[in-house]
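Bench notes, bay 3.
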Amino acid sequence: MLPIRPRMAVVAAGILLVSGCASLGAGSGEAPDAGPATTASTSPAPPEPSASSAEAQEEDDPSTPSSWGPTLGEIEEAQQLVSGWTPDQLAGQVIVGRFHGTDPQVPAQMVRDLHLAGISVTADNVTDHDQVVAMTTAISEAAADDGRAFPPVIGVDQEGGYVSHLRGIATDFPHFQSAGLAVQADARVGRRVTRAAALTTGLELRGLGFTWVFAPVADVTIGAADPTIGARSPSMDPKIAAQAVGAAIKGYDDAGIVSTVKHFPGHGTATSDSHDTLPQVDSSVAEIEEHDLPPFDSAIRHAAPAVMLSHLDLTSIAPGVPASMAPEVYSMLRDDLGFEGVTITDSLGMGAVGGRPKPALQALQAGADLLLMPVDTATTHQIVVDAIASGEISRERVEEAAARVVAVQMWQARLAAQRPVPDDVVDRARAASADLLAAAY
């Protein structure tokens, strides 16, 4: 199997250092009172371990967190688990399906029959609170029936503003632009209200049975010429956007839900809509690094568990190929920015990738770990199964992808168990929405 190489989270290490210096005494780095002075004949204390040996011990500790959430032990457990799976199971674990209608048993049967990682829920799949809970419960039970001891991916676009598929069921939050405006007005207050908004959004979603949220948007908009993102973006200023995105990631983590920073490496400069066509972006690599990447870099530094890849034709990186299917773009994300978590495509039902042969397989070969909402879920599943059997894609690549997905779901289950949804979550969410709006305007 190709190794998943977890690196220590810089943020987590920083927290440990700060907490270690917070007070004097035991655990603070200060020597405790050792009593009377020792004599020359007393055996010397053993030497302190070198920095390199301490790091090695830490990396061997299965409870050590990775840079994207799961512990080293969870990652290893996931790798061992998927190594024994059939091609049918592996293929399912890298697909998040779509379905039509509102019958909870339809997506549940898909998960059970195709071993799907999970389901993406849209506004067309929901009617009211009870139906949503019945649907997410049925999907979770189907995953358990399939022999999984970890929860399925049950995701939804709930960004705030007009991209909120649970409108009328979950609390309405303003556009994510409000987070950027709040940060711009007062950085400390802005980060606080943004984190609280993400926290309460995540908790409310968990109360409805969701395990993923397809947010926050990290795209830096160019304004009126941007027809797709607009107010979904936190800001036209990369630095402001980076602060808002980092705060949101921490809020979703606090809530015990998997967030999905999107749409890498940045959709805000595209002047056409990828729902309809493949937008061409002619920015140079230097321009992308300066304008588009700072919010994604912030998300990764704040331990983002998942990143969504855009359907953009980046002419300076991989001309003519959607970013979601371009190995060069995955290399930028992993090698240049150091991201080690789950990569997920934007919806494979969008016009930007329509007409391409086997788009899901192209994305998986390029480096995607999750294939989001293919047009025909069952056909896509069979394409991946056949590709594994024929060697068109290596089993190692699919195991690598599936293991990341399993590991992040183990992590989500652990966080959710530690952070129960409060009974007054709706009241908290409404207050957080009002606070964010007040801080922005």
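Next record in the batch:
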Amino acid sequence: MVSKDGLLRTRIVVERKKVELAGRKLWALTYNGQYMPPTLRIKPGDRMELAVVNKIDKVTNLHVHGLHVSPSGNSDNIFLAIEPGQTYHYAYQFPSNLAAGTYWYHPHPHTQSAAQTAGGMSGLIIVDGLKKYLPESLRGIRERVVALKDFQVQGDQVRTEGLKIGSPTNRTVNGQLNPVIDIRPGEIQLWRIANISANIFYKVALPGRKFHVIARDANPVNTIYSADSIVIPAAARFDVLVEGGGPGTSELQTLPYNTGSAGNQFPRATLATVVSQGRAMAPAKIPTAFAPTRDLSNAKVAARKTITFTENAQGTQSFINGKQFDMNRTDFRAKLNTVEEWTVRNQSDEVHSFHTHTDDFQLMSKDGVPVRFYGWRDTVDISPRGESVIRIRFSDYVGRTVLHCHILNHEDAGMMATLEIVGDQPANGAGKEPIPHHHPMPHA
């Protein structure tokens, strides 16, 4: 579904339906009757009008993950509830400087987020414009969506209740088990790798090939960097360039990954088969410099906060600063057009996936070690008994929003807090000086 003349108007029907998965017919929670629903494609400055029709027997709603847009009213408001049988009309006005890259959408009703997302309710959003930062010779390269979703099976249905993060699961790419990705020898493709599952982590590798990262969490990087494997926490996305190897087949894999003594050991698994065939292409030079970014290292810090993740011994209750989520309570306040520094601490023995709504952040350090700045992000994994320091600028939008662990079992168990952004500027972002998204205030 692609926007036209600045508008994307569409309808998403939420229903429990039998779908074909891994050669079986299974009951799943679907958007528009599909386990892998339509990708929504927009441009910066577009408007999106989205009718959500709830045909399941539970309350639901919709979150446009990572998008810099108002958290209030009928925009990206996760506090509202769409009751069974109801239709709700969302309307989003995106800023003209919205960052290009890969985003996603999923339900966000508290206590039901994991069940509904694991049941199948997640899809991609793409904001066009990433290729404009590439040399002209690479702007016509082919794109691949690599949407990572997993499902556990219970009888004839995709499991939604009693989800255990470490249970055996079926990892799919675009809703398929081990699909084929074709590429020509020497060809460079843009892969949009997105972890749109409820709870699990991926450590993605393509043996013999490198991933050249051009965006993380829909934030274009200032310098392209290369990696043999990339750890993708729950909810994170990487846009990467991949070069085809010599003729033959190879496996896109997720490698073993351990989230700590209280967490899970995810095994190695094959995600897709990559087939390199056809006429070889002359390898193109991967550029180094990429997109303009602004660094918050020297920004004036208006306030500092500490956010501490804890959980009970059984792992059945999760907390931020000793409290479980209550949508009627405001846990933190921040002022529009200021920069804050947050220390996010993990006092448990498993990794947590920290995520902010509305405004993205810059990771300053991890476990006491400064982190090289490539660009902003909306998700970071917090090490067991470790901490990450972030800086975040609040721009364009006021209102109540949330921050949470994006391992949705943990979020539903209470690991979420409310943040109210306050200020004199109207919520539509109109003001004396536009604040570019992902391009925060200049160095002080």
